[in-house]
Amino acid sequence: MRTGFPKAAPGMRIGLLGGSFDPAHEGHAHITRAALKGFGLDRVWWLVSPGNPLKPEGPAPMARRIAAAERIMHDPRVTITDIEARLGTRYTAATLGQLRTLYPGVHFVWLMGADNLMTFHRWDRWEWILQNVPVGVLARPGQGVGARRSRAAIAFARYRVPATHSRALALRDTPAWCFLNVPLVHISSSDIRARGEW
Ligand SMILES: Nc1ncnc2c1ncn2[C@@H]1O[C@H](COP(=O)(O)OP(=O)(O)OP(=O)(O)O)[C@@H](O)[C@H]1O
Ligand SMILES: O=C(O)c1ccc[n+]([C@@H]2O[C@H](COP(=O)([O-])O)[C@@H](O)[C@H]2O)c1
């Protein structure tokens, strides 16, 4: 699935799921399927991060994380890529800026679990992200209320797209973000690591 810089035609709607994927698990696969359907996406790219700038410890080697992700996610609409390492970016705003230049006419949507909405205001240029790229948030166990009350959710409350209009999120003028209430999957990479299964 990993093919250097993934191909994309103008007009495509592509969801970007950034993550450490240390390791990838069924929760990632589940929200990816939900996002494809719920946000009306043609593709999802898993951006396997060189390292979350807010996490003090680096993840497992990229090749190992990519191989594990490929074992979990088998869908021709999903591409697993180390594009951030290739671009030399690790901040999401920088990645999105470069992707918009590299793929003119592609409608990107930034995807994330609700836990990341809670801490989103600590991300580099987080307001720029919301002002320039539609954001799709997927429910995550234990994060629903907190995410809706988060600083980013409150600051951009009037740009929230109702779930009834989620399927056109990629085509909306920005700012636009949408919270999708998907069935909850109780799994995390930290749990897998804590059990010594990675
Ligand atoms: N079970 C899940 N339900 C909803 N979203 C999830 C789930 N697992 C991961 N995500 C989302 O997928 C993206 C990538 O997650 P990540 O690779 O950090 O996995 P993680 O399980 O959250 O890892 P860790 O436990 O190490 O923090 C994030 O936006 C995260 O919110
Ligand atoms: O850009 C930032 O400041 C920033 C801060 C924290 C996390 N991120 C991104 O959020 C995504 C999820 O990170 P993680 O480690 O929770 O899987 C991943 O793509 C990170 O690069 C980005």
TrEMBL record:
This is Probable nicotinate-nucleotide adenylyltransferase. One of its GO terms (biological process) is NAD+ biosynthetic process. It holds the Pfam family CTP_transf_like. Belongs to the NadD family. Coiled coil: none annotated. The keyword Transcription regulation does not apply. Its EC number is 2.7.7.18. Catalyzes the reversible adenylation of nicotinate mononucleotide (NaMN) to nicotinic acid adenine dinucleotide (NaAD). GO terms for molecular function: ATP binding; nicotinate-nucleotide adenylyltransferase activity. CDD domains: NMNAT. Residues 16-195 form the Cytidyltransferase-like domain. The keyword Nucleotide-binding applies. Pathway: Cofactor biosynthesis; NAD(+) biosynthesis; deamido-NAD(+) from nicotinate D-ribonucleotide: step 1/1. Keywords: ATP-binding, NAD, Nucleotide-binding, Nucleotidyltransferase, Pyridine nucleotide biosynthesis, Transferase. It catalyses: nicotinate beta-D-ribonucleotide + ATP + H(+) = deamido-NAD(+) + diphosphate.
